[in-house]
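Appendix C: a fully annotated inverse folding record. The material below is reproduced so that readers can follow the format used throughout the book. The structure is listed first as tokens, followed by the designed sequence.
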């Protein structure tokens, strides 16, 4: 279910005007997936990033990707400088084809509203903005997809976590 949900979100993002057609970017795409357990999904095969990459390859893209999803993580963990943000930079810098279109797919938000990790909606937005601004500065011409999270809300609940 998580794979299908994330794949649908990515496909909607890629289907609109927010993404270049394969021929407009030489068909080569490097994608860094940034997120929490929905992105990490280490116990699922395929993981959402792998499923999305396989779909894009079937559409004619040459895809290299890195899964930087970590269960339980929030926007604060990925906020620059340092820490997990450095792992994102290492992943982006580690792609072999430096001429490929660089895309960051960010799916964070659910854990930001957890009681233990709660941030305000404004802080959540600012964390995303700080991350995006830093990525755009370091990688001019990159594309950033902000996936709508399974969200930040006052009544979100799941079996493993308590939320505000």
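Designed amino acids, in order:
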């Amino acid at each position: 279910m998580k794979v299908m949900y994330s794949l649908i979100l990515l496909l909607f993002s890629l289907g609109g005007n927010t993404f270049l057609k394969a021929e407009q970017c030489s068909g080569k795409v490097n994608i860094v997936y940034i997120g929490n357990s929905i992105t990490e999904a280490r116990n699922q095969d395929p993981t959402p990033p792998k499923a999305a990459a396989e779909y894009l390859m079937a559409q004619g893209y040459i895809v290299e990707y890195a899964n930087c999803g970590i269960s339980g993580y929030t926007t604060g963990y990925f906020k620059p400088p340092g820490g997990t943000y450095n792992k994102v930079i290492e992943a982006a810098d580690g792609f072999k084809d430096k001429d490929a279109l660089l895309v960051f797919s960010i799916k964070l938000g659910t854990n930001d509203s957890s009681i233990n990790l709660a941030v305000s909606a404004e802080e959540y937005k600012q964390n995303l903005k700080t991350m995006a601004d830093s990525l755009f500065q370091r990688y001019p011409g990159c594309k950033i997809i902000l996936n709508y999270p399974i969200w930040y809300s006052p009544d979100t609940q799941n079996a493993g976590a308590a939320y505000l």
